[in-house]
Model the fold of this input.
Amino acid sequence: MKEYKHIPVMLNEVIDFLSPKKNQNFIDCTLGGAGYTVAIAKLILPKGKILSIDLDKLAVRNAETVIKKENLKNIKIAHGNFKDIAKILQNNWENPQDAKINGIVFDLGLSSAQLKDERRGFSFQLDAPLDMAFGAQQECSTEQIINNWREKEIEKILKDYGEERFAKSIARRIIDARKDIEIKNTKQLVDIIAEAVPGKYRNNRKIHFATRTFQALRIATNDELNSLKKALPEALNILTKGGRIVVISYHSLEDRIVKHFFKKEAKDCLCPPELPVCRCGHKAGLKIITKKALPASAEEVKKNPRSRSAKMRVIEKK
Ligand SMILES: C[S@@+](CC[C@H](N)C(=O)[O-])C[C@H]1O[C@@H](n2cnc3c(N)ncnc32)[C@H](O)[C@@H]1O
Done:
């Protein structure tokens, strides 16, 4: 199959913070183009292993081609959702109860291979079926959202997940349009958005007028925020003491989920401040390594525009 090149974002920082050593074990929750996986796999030879997960069959097949070329035998690929990380480890590791996992990485969102895939509806620059699912088993499809959800629900996801200023008029326009036709492809949707937003917004050169709507629909289709919320505690649980989790996110809502989870788990007590003594008994499970989210370097942003919105957070298990 054709091999897609995905330039991994913040690869040097990922390797610096995870600091993979001979014979250690890792989990890459978002295999994508296998950039992180291959780099880590080489550093943990001869006995270290890496389990790499992706929800997207295309990513899995693409990564298999890349890995075959590298002739690396210490990578186990699992097709699945990282929200099931504990179960995936259970099913894909020899003696999972003894698995010593030294690091886990999440590089959220979509890869350039997915964006360029003409059979999918991730890009507003291609005309493709309205399908933004990473995997096949999503509860709802993008087409279903657009053609069946109520106006208020569509407006809400555009506002919440896309921070779209014109959420209300775009949702209204979608409802009007679907009275006459079924909205089945990305070009139809782009035309509808174009009609719903003012000319100044439509002609904005910095950000395409459909960007925020497409982002919101992708997040809703894949229930991305809930997957992340479920995966983080499971990942912390799996990790060995002293092991690290690195998360790279590209959206403020994702970063907020990561930040809140890490902050909460870094505290010894979660009781309300007015309680004189601790009743919850909660013990800090991690140490925060990056006090603030780390952006990509200016040099990287110049070379790879995708890294522009990247935010990295790192913790270490106590
Ligand atoms: C930004 S890419 C990862 C790129 C990768 N770090 C590399 O070095 O090439 C994100 C990947 O995560 C996958 N993905 C997104 N959400 C997922 C989930 N909940 N479970 C598993 N994989 C997911 C996407 O299918 C995509 O291939």
Remarks:
- The chain has two domains: 11-113+224-317, 139-222.
- The chain has a mean pLDDT of 93.
- DSSP finds 14 helices and seven strands in the chain.
